[in-house]
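Q: Could you fold this chain for me?
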Amino acid sequence: MPATATIEEAAKAIADDFALFDEYGDKIEYIMDRGRHLPPFPEALKVDANLVPGCQSRVWLVARRDPATGRVRLQADSDAFIVKGLIALLLQLYDDRLPEEILANPPKVLDEIGLTLFLTPGRSNGLASMIARIQAAARAFLGAPAEAAAPA
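A: Sure. Below is the predicted structure, expressed as structure tokens.
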């Protein structure tokens, strides 16, 4: 998804992709495939301070604000294939966005595509924790200088 796409366009692209699959297994395979294409996550950032609490797998998430544009740049990784795919969906929605855009656009598309219906309760809780972490970073950046990093 090009960085110039709006959150609404990114959400529509996700919904369109999921509409191609009828079977649970196909949807899960698609999610895992998305995770295989995540940008590399630096090993140096895989520290406890960057772990997202509430996830049943290990999830590292870092949010930084670009000083030139004020946009939130997200990096994330997990030790679980399905979770990597969930991260890829969240990055498609929220990476390279202004904090105000992130906060004004809850990830309704995830409910619209029925994502929580085929995730285990633990994975659903982890997804909610990742979303909360991204939103918390956006809120923190609204009151912080552009070059500040989100609290980890």
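A (continued): Residues 146-152 have pLDDT under 50 and may be disordered.
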